[in-house]
Amino acid sequence: MKSCALLLATLVAIAVPAAAFDSFVPNPQDRTLYPAHANGQQNERPWLDAKRVSAGEIDVDGRLDEGVWATLPTGWGFVEHEPNRGDPASESTVFRVAYDDDAIYFGVACFERDPSLTSSTLSRRDNIDNSDIVSIYLDPYHDRTTGYNFRVNPDGSLADSYVFDDGNRDPDWNAVWEAETYRDQRGWSTEVRIPFAAIRYRPQQEMTWGLQIYRWMHGRGEDTGWANWDREAAGFVSRFGELRGLRNVPAARQLEITPYVVARSTNPDAGFLGEGSGSLSDFQNFGADIKYGLTGDLTLNATFQPDFGQVEADPAVLNLGPFENFFAEQRPFFVEGANAFEHPNFNLF
C-alpha cells in the first residue's frame, strides 16, 4: 500500500504596518510639511499649526505610525542651548501636534546616529535622572508668564510641573496625562496625550498658545530646543514659540475627585514580645481631595478630612546626628499651588 502525502500550500497576504516614525524622517525640501515659519534655526519665535483629528485616530503607543501623522506640519530646526548656545543641534528632532475635542497630542521623533548614546533609566514619577528627555512646555493662556511642563524619557518615565513668574516651577503640581515611547536603531520617539481637562485655558473660537519643546541628550551632554534666545536675555515662558490653529475646542469638564480610605488596627496592651490582652484598637478614616474648574481663570481646591495615609510613606532614615528629621509635606491639597501664599519676608504656613 502506497502512502500518499498531501501538501496543502496556502498563501496568506499579511499587511505589514509602516515602520515606526518613518513619516517623521526630516525632509526640509517639502515646504508643505516643513514650513519655514516652523524652523527654529531661522526664527526667533517659530510657530506651528495644530491640526484637528477624529477621536481615536491616534493610538498612543509611541510608534508614530498612524497615517494622520504623515499629513501634519512639522516643527523642526532645533538649536543648541547648552553647551554651544545658538549652534544647530547635532541630531535632528522633529515634532507634530494634533488635537480632538478631548485632548492635545504631540508626536516627537528623536533621531540618533549612535543609539548607544541614548541614555535612560526607569524612574519614579517626577524623579527622572541620568536620561535623555523630551520636555514639552505649554502656555495655554498665552500670557507669556505661566505654563505647564510635561517630560518623558525613553523608558516612559513621566514628570510634570507648573511654571509661573516667567520661569519659576512648582514641581508638586500633578496632572493626569499619558505618554508612550519606542526605540529602534534610528533613535527614539514618543507620543504624548494631554487631556484638555488637565490644564487651564480660556475657550475661544480660535486659540494661540505658547509652546516650547526641549530635547536633552544625556549621552552627548547637549540640551536643544525649538525656540532659541540669547543666553544673556531675561525670561523663559516669554521666549516661547507659538502653537496656532486650535479651533472650536470645547470647555473641558474640569472636575477631579481623589478619594481615600485609611484603616488601622493596633493592640495597645502588647509588650515588646507581643504579650497582651489580645484586644485591638481600630481606627478608620476617609476623605477626598476635590478640584473643580469654575471658569477658565478660577479653580476651586477643597479637601475633606485630609490624612497622611493618602500619600506614600516617608523613606526610612538612619539619623546619627543631634537634630530631628524633617519630612516634607506631600498631601496634594497642601503643596499644589502653595507658591501663591509665599512671601519674601515671612511664611504664611
Question: Which keywords apply here?
Answer:
349 residues, mainly beta, Immunoglobulin-like, 5-stranded mixed beta sheet, globular, disordered N terminus
For the residues shown, what is the average pLDDT? 85
Given as residue ranges, the uncertain stretches (5+ residues, pLDDT < 50) are: 1-17
Classify the fold: give the CATH topology of the largest domain.
Immunoglobulin-like
Which CATH architecture of the largest domain would you pick? Sandwich
CATH hierarchy, class of the largest domain: Mainly Beta
Tally of alpha and pi helices: 1
- The beta-strand count equals 17
| Protein structure class | mainly beta
Residues in helix, %: under 10%
Q: How many structural domains can be distinguished in the coordinates?
A: 2
Helix and strand string, N-terminal first? EEEEEEEEEEEEEEEEEH
Rg over C-alpha atoms, rounded to the nearest angstrom = 25 Å
Fold and architecture overview:
The structure is a single chain. The protein has 1 helix and 17 strands. It has 2 domains: 22-247, Immunoglobulin-like (Sandwich); 255-270 and 277-341, no CATH class. It is mostly beta strands. The longest helix has 4 residues, at 332-335. The N and C termini lie far apart (97 Å).
